[in-house]
């Protein structure tokens, strides 16, 4: 696709357009779109990835915030009955309006400055979703898939790995984007699935993870003190541990136990 002569990308919208067809084909192969599937694409830009989803025969609802790109997208995909376009902020779209018997799939090369916000918005609607494949900043991708024990293991890793399996598929050089971003990129795939251990109160679980990782240098006993009584006893876990040493299943067990103690 030719670059429109008068178009100035906006940094405030995280606009770095992916121009390399080989990379786009690689992403499309990883997504493997099928005719009967319905994709929600976050930030189609000029339609670089959209084209691959539509050509595979998938249904694609593209959600683009930048009004300047709307006529261009409408014109480019006018001949595709399987294309639908919304000029909206993805974070404000209720995906229930697109839900059918088959689960939705989410895809996009997203604006990096709001990655966490977009990912958490998607996770809040995960019961409608089968999977999500996003191009994100490489450092963020590494945090998403990080195992317990290291500095990268935090809220993004835990929410991702509690409610999905998360995989870093491959990295992408800055040189294939226009304008060139200052950072490397990576493609991440989340496949939504039930948590490894049932969670009694999901809101409390998320609140607890945010609380203990918001003060990650503190021991669990200190950071949990706001959420439960000071003399509460948890005999199955050493409260002198730091939060980043806990595996997902341990965090869930801890939240389940705290939720029980809190209620007494
Ligand atoms: N997918 C295109 C590509 O690969 O060339 C564009 C990628 S660019 C990194 C991110 C796109 O997301 C831009 O088109 C931008 O306008 C759009 N965008 C930014 N914030 C958005 C939001 N909150 N909701 C929907 N789209 C957004």
The major sheet is characterized as: 7 strands, mixed
Q: Assign a percent range to the helix content.
A: 25-40%
User: Reading side by side through the largest sheet, how are the strands ordered?
Assistant: 4-3-2-5-6-9-7
Order of helices and strands: EHEHEHEEHEHHEEEHHH
- Indicate the proportion of strand residues: 15-25%
Tally of helical runs: 9
Task: Determine the mean pLDDT.
Answer: 94
Separation, N- and C-terminal Cα atoms: 62 Å
**CATH-level-2 architecture of the largest domain:** 3-Layer(aba) Sandwich
Class of secondary structure makeup? alpha/beta
Q: Name the CATH homologous superfamily of the largest domain.
A: Vaccinia Virus protein VP39
Low-confidence stretches: none
List the ligand species.
S-adenosylmethionine
